[in-house]
Specification:
By secondary structure, the chain is an all-alpha fold. It folds into 2 domains: about 130 residues; about 240 residues, no CATH class. Helix content is about 70%, strand content about 0%. It is built from 19 helices and 4 strands. It has a two-stranded antiparallel ribbon with strand order 1-2. A hairpin with a 2-residue loop joins strand 1 and strand 2. It comes from Pedobacter rhodius.
């Protein structure tokens, strides 16, 4: 595709957004157009004849690049999942009308929901624009390659990053370095596992499966949903190039099980947080809860609350739009300044503010969470962009987001020797937080220190002669 056609493709992303703003006086229709707009962008970038992506690999072998995986997760959570909250607002539950016969009447909340969806669609279009603008028209220039053949490379890499991560974990103030390195090790294990199956190598299967599933078990005892979902996504993505039909066939039932049972499972696991029972006992109780037919109503109620309140966070977004600028001026550069302060490691600044508390201040101010509640309700990039500079802020922030995400992936592939190591293992481990995004304070931290970690790890691997120049 030439540059002119790429520009024309990008311009089509904004047609649904323009139409949704023209229908602003009909909130329900405006919402539906904006919601459908994200599906339209998915189609244009993935399936249409004008789809623009790197041609060095078939599509199913490069799904962990930002155009596919990051866009799917980021826009999927940000834009598509809002339909559950919208259905709840219309008076439906699981696509079944609750107040049968009662006439739905549009309200101020309906307009706020539509406004949120329009901003999300604009953010989705800008994100995808940034990704497309950063995609290399030619193959990425590889600067380094593996110093030796075979999958033993993954074993050594996993051992090295685990060792460095363990050392960092034991040093106060270095936990933010330990986490991405540990994630690199988990990704190595997942790739080694699938390589072992495809090559029928028992050693690779044993090593990869042991590391990956021990981590999965730990995630299942944490009481958090995201680590479990993330592990499933990673495993599916590394298996897809080799077992495409199998992964596609089980993807829908797996997603159903995760979304339907996981909220209840995790709510039960969290009983262990009080210390009254162990995580293992809580897990046993959780499995019993979701397996008994008598608990079906509890599971449905918990699941619907998760789908409408936590999955898309649309309700919280409407409160921010109602708060700014009606009751509070746009924040301008205030959130960005906080985010720059967050880059300083606490080991060098003992009086550094707690960024969790700093970021929650605007949440409490907007009434999106109760200060007396222990819940963490941090904002997302589109929300912080809107709070800072309004509609233009959403466009330019998400455009820069897309440019950065794809550029970091390009760099990782270049200095780590290609797609598998550079994109699958390094980029999607170190920058995993960018899949869904976070508030500015945590997102800036992930990008800056992730870049430092990636460059440092590359130098260490070259020093140990695990990577060598590609000449």
């Amino acid at each position: 595709m030439n540059q002119k056609n790429k520009v024309q493709t990008i311009l089509t992303f904004y047609l649904p957004a323009v139409l949704s703003y023209l229908l602003i006086n009909s909130p329900v229709i405006s919402y539906l157009v904006a919601w459908s707009g994200s599906l339209f962008i998915f189609y244009i970038t993935w399936f249409s004849p004008v789809a623009y992506y790197q041609k060095d690999l078939p599509v199913y072998q490069q799904i962990m690049r930002p155009l596919f995986l990051t866009q799917f997760i980021f826009a999927g959570f940000m834009c598509v999942t809002s339909v559950f909250y919208f259905l709840d607002h219309l008076g439906y539950r699981y696509f079944t009308e609750i107040n049968y016969g009662a006439e739905f009447k549009e309200s101020e909340q309906t307009a706020l929901i539509a406004s949120c969806q329009r901003l999300c669609l604009l953010g989705h279009a800008a994100l995808t624009t940034g990704i497309l603008l950063s995609i290399k028209t030619a193959n990425i220039k590889i600067k380094n390659i593996q110093a030796f053949k075979g999958q033993d490379f993954l074993v050594w890499l996993g051992v090295i990053v685990f060792a460095i991560g363990s050392i960092c974990q034991s040093i106060a103030g270095f936990s933010q370095i330990a986490l991405p390195l540990t994630t690199v090790g988990i990704s190595c294990a997942a790739v080694l596992f699938v390589k072992g199956i495809t090559t029928k190598n028992i050693s690779y299967i044993a090593i990869g499966a042991s590391i990956f599933f021990v981590n999965f078990l730990h995630a299942s005892l944490s009481g958090y949903k995201e680590p479990i979902i993330t592990n499933v996504i990673v495993l599916a993505c590394v298996f897809l190039p080799y077992y495409k039909k199998f992964v596609l066939y089980i993807s829908i039932p797996t997603a159903y099980v995760l979304l339907y049972f996981l909220p209840t499972y995790n709510n039960t696991i969290r009983q262990s947080w009080s210390g009254e029972i162990s995580a293992e006992d809580a897990q046993t109780q959780a499995l019993k809860t979701i397996s008994e037919d008598a608990n079906e109503d509890i599971i449905e109620q918990t699941n619907w609350a998760f789908l409408t309140e936590r999955l898309s966070e649309t309700n919280m977004f409407t409160q921010f739009i109602d708060y700014v600028p009606r009751h509070h001026d746009y924040y301008g550069w205030e959130i960005v300044e906080n985010s720059i302060e967050a880059l300083v490691p606490r080991v060098f600044w003992s009086g550094k503010p707690n960024m969790e508390s700093v970021s929650m201040e605007r949440v409490y101010a907007a009434g999106a969470a109760n200060p007396m509640s222990p819940v963490s309700a941090k904002t997302r990039p589109v929300v912080d962009a809107y709070l800072s500079w309004g509609i233009p802020g959403v466009f330019f922030t998400m455009l820069l987001y897309g440019l950065l995400v794809q550029s970091l992936c390009n760099l990782a592939e270049s200095i780590f020797g290609g797609y598998e190591l550079g994109c699958v293992i390094i980029f999607n481990s170190i920058f995993q937080g960018l899949w869904r995004g976070n508030n500015f304070e945590f997102m800036f931290n992930n990008i800056f220190w992730g870049f430092i970690i990636m460059i440092a790890l590359n130098e260490v691997l070259k020093l140990l002669k695990i990577l060598r120049p590609a000449y």
